[in-house]
Amino acid sequence: MLTGNCWFGTxxxxxxxxxxxxELLRNETGEIKELTYLSPEQLGRSIDDRKAIYDIYCExxxxxxxxxxxxxxxxxxxxxxxxxYSTFPIQQQAxxxxxxxxxxxxxxxxxxxxxxxxxxxxxEVFHHEVQLFDKSTQKIFFDKLTYIYLEMPKFKKTEAxxxxxxxxxxxxxxxxxxxxxxxxxxxxxIFQKLLKQAEIANYNEQEYAEYEESLKVYRDLKxxxxxxxxxxRLQGRxxxxxxxxxxxxxxxxxxxxxxxxxxxxxxxxxxxxVKEIENLEC
Length: 282
Description:
It holds the Pfam family PDDEXK_2. This protein is an alpha/beta fold. The chain is 43% helix and 17% strand.
């Protein structure tokens, strides 16, 4: 299972976190367009107060806060801990001077590689979404404080059973460290990027140095080709934009292939298929 914040918690991989949160919370938040990472270490109001250290802490363009915890080992009082952590972004919203107490929503998400002790006999429900609930009216009392827990050991779907984009996310989160190849059902760009990042994380020093050199060559080539392509596109308008664009894309792919850039990187850059790239003559 995915652990730590090595992928979700880095700026270059922010699109991974946005895609995952949109799948998890779209009905609650609407489409998240942008996220800003905040300090994962939160201090109390006084020096004697305990502090909170989040795996990932961020906010979207509407000021809504997201705490994401990825837990490998079982922890006692994990629910208590997540409630405690949510109090920090609540207090931080207090404005100096006059304030009407209006709060932006806060979402605490636990991706867990264990099952809550009280749920060990329930193998059906693994996705828990909790808000303040009025027992008398059987309605949500307050919807700006949401706790989501994913008990990943209960997610049993195989690759063949994956139907939705969210299913695929859960499958990857649970099985990423055990995958030896790229699943055929997970061909979306976002999953290919995550799988590539997982591969890079397992590189030894020499492999990583070779990857960095390949990336440098790719960036230099892409920059020069993009410049030439932009110039050519102006001329292409007179000759036929579509033909000019196709020629420029093939030229880019050919040069990247000659430079030894990985096929999946060329796919992401040009939009060509793996077969089209393999058939290019260098």
